[in-house]
Design brief:
Chain lengths: 88, 313
């Protein structure tokens, strides 16, 4: 979800679609709002003004920092894994 | 999704959650396709929010502890079905010949009695006080919620009695009476009849447990329990957590000994629900007990934090 919001604010349906395009997983409505509640409580995302009953969210500065750290770890992990795979 | 269904699903979430997300979530659901998968996802998430977001509620430590004790006990009661899933299988014979297996089985049974006694010791005075205050102050919302567990039990018992009368036998539909690896008594209906009737009882039991847990939690959160003695709450919550930990240890040990001493029977397909094995039942029980232990320990922690008066956090 943080990666989905990295390129700009989105509302629920846009996030579901974006996440599906990124990783092939379609989040259910309960799962999506469970994650929104958790990320907002951790101050990693924040709500913007309502747009026709649709609530957009954007990533916070803390959210960007956490996302960058997670992606760096994943990148390092993927590189190490690929290196081992290619060494055989 | 039609607005009525969206509103009903949103109402499954705790009030504190609804206050923050209710309006936007309802609007979101109205524009979401109404699939069984989406409804299941929302129901599961709402239940998760009720169990895991208790810290976000506006409950004091005393109420939070009681709610967690309710959840922990109901989860443990569900897990104890493991008790019934093995005593009619080939493992019953193995339990007679292997002391360790039988001891761990008895540990689960004895601990479940201790847990039940503890729950009665804490529930009777609390329920009595809640009902007395609710009737005095005409809080029918609390009375209605406290009526859900007995109503759920009554519906389940009425169903079992009706099914027994309908089949014209002495058999009462139980989920664990559908195993096909043993000869049922001659006056029982055939397996093809027992299976669907037992499945209905299973659904009624699960729905009843979940509805009871949610309604009792709501009743507790709407009641003033500041006059309930903290020492009694601490003793009972620690005893309940201890007994659930013992039950969980017994279940884990039983599986370990079953694998060591009676591996063939442990993994044999017993023809029960979904043609399952005792190993599958044991794995499911372990998962439920782990959840129950975590909730019970959190409940005991909340009870220990209770001071003389009301402790808001």
């Amino acid at each position: 979800m943080l990666a989905s919001l990295a390129d700009g604010p989105k509302h629920g349906h846009a996030m579901i679609q974006d996440i599906f395009e990124m990783c092939g997983t379609r989040l259910g409505p309960g799962t999506l709002y469970g994650a929104i509640a958790r990320l907002e409580r951790q101050r990693l995302i924040e709500p913007l003004d309502l747009e026709e009953r649709r609530q957009p969210y954007r990533i916070t500065a803390d959210g960007r920092r956490v996302l960058r750290a997670k992606l760096a770890t994943l990148h390092q992990f993927a590189r190490a894994g690929l290196r081992k795979l290619e060494a055989r | 999704m039609n607005p009525r269904l969206a509103r009903s699903l949103t109402r499954l979430y705790p009030r504190a959650w609804r206050d923050r997300y209710g309006e936007e979530f309802e609007a979101f659901l109205e524009t979401h396709p109404s699939t069984l998968q989406a409804v299941g996802d929302v129901v599961g998430s709402a239940f998760h929010a009720r169990v895991c977001l208790l810290d976000a509620f506006t409950m004091d430590s005393r109420q939070r502890s009681l709610v967690m004790m309710t959840y922990a006990y109901l989860a443990a009661a569900a897990g104890v079905n493991f008790y019934f899933s093995v005593d009619d299988t080939p493992l019953a014979e193995a339990m007679r010949s292997h002391a360790a297996l039988s001891m761990s089985f008895r540990l689960v049974a004895k601990s479940s009695f201790l847990a039940f006694a503890t729950v009665v010791a804490v529930a009777v005075p609390v329920a009595f006080r809640m009902l007395r205050v609710a009737f005095t102050e005409r809080r029918w919302d609390v009375v209605g919620r406290l009526a859900v567990p007995p109503a759920a039990a009554l519906i389940t018992v009425a169903w079992m009695a009706a099914a027994s009368i309908w089949t014209g036998t002495h058999w009462v539909p139980m989920p664990w009476d559908v195993a096909g690896d043993w000869n049922a008594p001659a006056d029982w209906p055939p397996l093809g009849v027992r299976w669907p009737l037992g499945a209905v009882t299973f659904v009624l039991l699960v729905v009843g447990l979940v509805a009871s847990a949610i309604s009792v939690a709501q009743a507790i959160s709407r009641s003033d329990l500041t006059r309930h003695r903290p020492l009694w709450l601490k003793i009972t919550s620690v005893t309940l957590a201890g007994s659930i930990v013992l039950m969980a240890l017994g279940v884990v040990a039983w599986g370990w000994f079953a694998e060591r001493d009676a591996s063939e029977g442990f993994h044999a397909r017993n023809g029960g629900l979904f043609v399952s094995t005792s190993f599958a039942s044991w794995t499911a029980s372990c998962a439920v007990f782990v959840m129950s232990v975590v909730i019970a320990l959190r409940g005991a922690g909340a009870a220990i934090a209770v001071q003389g008066g009301s402790t808001r956090s």
